[in-house]
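Whiteboard transcription, Tuesday session. T.W. wrote the structure tokens on the left side:
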């Protein structure tokens, strides 16, 4: 049978009498009451809701509570289950309970949810919350009196007191936090600094602010002397921000240089050069944040010096793949029906998947491998230098990286198709460029394209890539110009620069020209995005070693040339109009 109100009250009285308890123990004790399939009394549900909500770590703004369970769009407890009667019950319990742990939870729930559910915030519950938090700490009524959640409540008590302009409560909570910090009872060395100096400095006297900062600085000095990287890292940014805000550049520089020295000491001791690399990189980024150029340059040099050794530590990962020979030949044969024009058009269409294909792949992988939603991906170039960082919430970056991986995998099949087309149609450089020249934009520089294809036929992929890339960029600029737009931007000292290829590919004009973002997005993946293949930038800036030019890169550029020729075959350029006197 369901617990009666008397049974519930008796259980609550028993828990309240405990010398120490916390929200989880209270919830479990209430749940232990026998419940049948019938609906339990409202008070039983309200008590479960009260202690079922979970506090968010370090949350002082907005809703500090979240559901215990959230699954496929559903959550428990949910704010939708609350009503005015629930709030009124909690408010009464906040005043009647004899245990400060109970009063703390009831009073905060009324303050947080009252306005949303009842239409008004009940400020009378804030003093109850504040006084109960202080009593809970002073009398050791929480399960672990130095528990993180306990001190988070103390910081929220300070913030709530400020919000209702209760100066006496503000002073009382502030003095408690300071006393705990002085006696090293807070869970983290920077806890008092964060709560009072970083977020609420105006409520401190000059002496209080100075004392709190000096205590943190003293702890920082101790951690530096011990080369305790984790402690130093935890305090360095706070102190550097503080001194910069005070325009105290001498102390700011001291914090930055000592942080960097600890990172350097740690990097020199670790056995892995890859780990050392990220230590130097973190130091360089920290110095850059505070604009100490000389310190940044020192660690950027260490990053550069370490990066080749990072590449040596990396190990290749191979995945065996079995392909049915007959099915593969059937796939190749499907491209060879009709003349070479039809073959080229099939290649152009088949090997450029829409952006949605890759975003769908990312969603499937995220669901299958949860760690993808937790950890970021760092990309290194051929020299071991980091070129990009893809965070778990960077959906665009993850799609581009997935496209890069799939393009490298499908390169084998693109290579097979292109070789069979070349063999069947006895394709030479003239035949290849004849097809491209159906598009007027390819009429210029025909000789360069022919030379590039000849190098391709001779397996000189390095030369082919260096010849194809500038021509692809020229054609894209011609498309922009032919649409009536300029590819130029003013130069500071006078004259003009060309806009970068990446800027053009991101433009609305090219999305409109190709009736969607799929083509320019694909071109960015291959040519200009550091999360993708970035071929244009790596080649034009001399960042690719000779041995990295393979058939796959050349085949992708062949595909892009075919794609451009196929997609813009009917364009009439402004250049042609000018020549015709238009």
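and on the right, the sequence the group agreed on:
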């Amino acid at each position: 049978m369901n617990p009666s109100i008397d049974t519930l009250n008796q259980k609550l009285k028993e828990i309240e009498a405990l010398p120490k308890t916390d929200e989880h123990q209270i919830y479990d004790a209430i749940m232990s009451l026998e419940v049948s399939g019938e609906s339990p009394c409202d008070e039983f549900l309200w008590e479960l809701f009260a202690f079922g909500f979970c506090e968010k770590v370090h949350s002082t703004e907005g809703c500090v509570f979240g559901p215990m369970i959230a699954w496929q769009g559903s959550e428990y407890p949910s704010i939708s289950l609350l009503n005015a009667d629930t709030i009124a019950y909690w408010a009464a319990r906040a005043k009647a309970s004899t245990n400060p742990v109970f009063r703390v939870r009831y009073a905060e729930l009324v303050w947080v949810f009252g306005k949303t559910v009842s239409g008004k915030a009940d400020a009378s519950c804030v003093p109850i919350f504040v006084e109960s938090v202080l009593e809970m700490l002073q009398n050791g009524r929480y399960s672990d009196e130095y528990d993180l959640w306990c001190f988070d409540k103390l910081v929220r008590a300070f913030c709530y007191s400020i919000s209702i302009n209760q100066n006496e409560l503000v002073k009382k909570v502030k003095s408690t936090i300071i006393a705990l910090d002085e006696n090293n009872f807070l869970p983290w060395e920077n806890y008092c600094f964060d709560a009072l100096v970083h977020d609420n400095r105006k409520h401190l006297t000059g002496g209080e602010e100075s004392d709190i900062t000096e205590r943190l600085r003293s702890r920082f000095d101790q951690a530096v002397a011990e080369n305790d990287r984790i402690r130093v890292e935890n305090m360095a940014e706070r102190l550097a921000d503080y001194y910069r805000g005070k325009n105290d550049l001498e102390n700011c520089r001291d914090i930055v240089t000592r942080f960097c020295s600890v990172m350097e000491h740690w990097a020199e001791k670790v056995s892995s050069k890859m780990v050392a690399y990220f230590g130097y990189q973190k130091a360089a980024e920290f110095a850059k944040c505070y604009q100490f150029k000389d310190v940044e340059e020192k660690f950027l040099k260490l990053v550069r010096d370490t990066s080749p050794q990072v590449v040596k530590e990396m190990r290749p990962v191979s995945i065996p793949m079995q392909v049915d020979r007959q099915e593969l030949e059937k796939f190749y044969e499907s491209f060879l029906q009709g003349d070479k024009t039809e073959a080229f058009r099939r290649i152009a269409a088949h090997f450029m998947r829409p952006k949605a294909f890759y975003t769908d792949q990312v969603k499937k992988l995220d669901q299958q491998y949860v760690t993808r939603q937790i950890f970021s991906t760092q990309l290194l170039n051929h020299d071991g230098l980091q070129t990009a960082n893809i965070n778990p919430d960077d959906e665009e970056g993850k799609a581009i990286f997935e496209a890069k991986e799939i393009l490298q995998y499908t390169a084998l099949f693109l290579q097979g198709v292109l070789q069979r087309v070349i063999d069947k149609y006895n394709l030479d450089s003239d035949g290849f460029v004849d097809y491209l020249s159906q598009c007027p934009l390819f009429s210029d520089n025909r000789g360069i394209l022919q030379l590039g294809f000849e190098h391709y036929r001779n397996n000189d992929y390095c030369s082919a890539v260096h010849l194809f890339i500038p021509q692809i960029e020229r054609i894209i600029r011609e498309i922009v110009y032919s649409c009536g737009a300029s590819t130029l931007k003013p130069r500071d000292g006078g004259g003009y620069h060309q806009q970068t290829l990446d800027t053009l590919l991101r433009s609305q004009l090219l999305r409109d020209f190709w009736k969607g973002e799929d083509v320019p997005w694909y071109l960015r993946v291959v040519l200009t995005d550091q999360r993708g293949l970035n071929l244009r930038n790596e080649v034009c800036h001399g960042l690719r070693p000779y041995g990295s030019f393979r058939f796959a890169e050349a085949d992708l550029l062949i595909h892009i040339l075919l794609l451009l020729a196929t997609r813009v075959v009917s364009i009439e350029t402004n250049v042609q109009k000018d020549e015709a006197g238009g």
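Someone added at the bottom: Residues 395-424 form the longest helix (30 residues).
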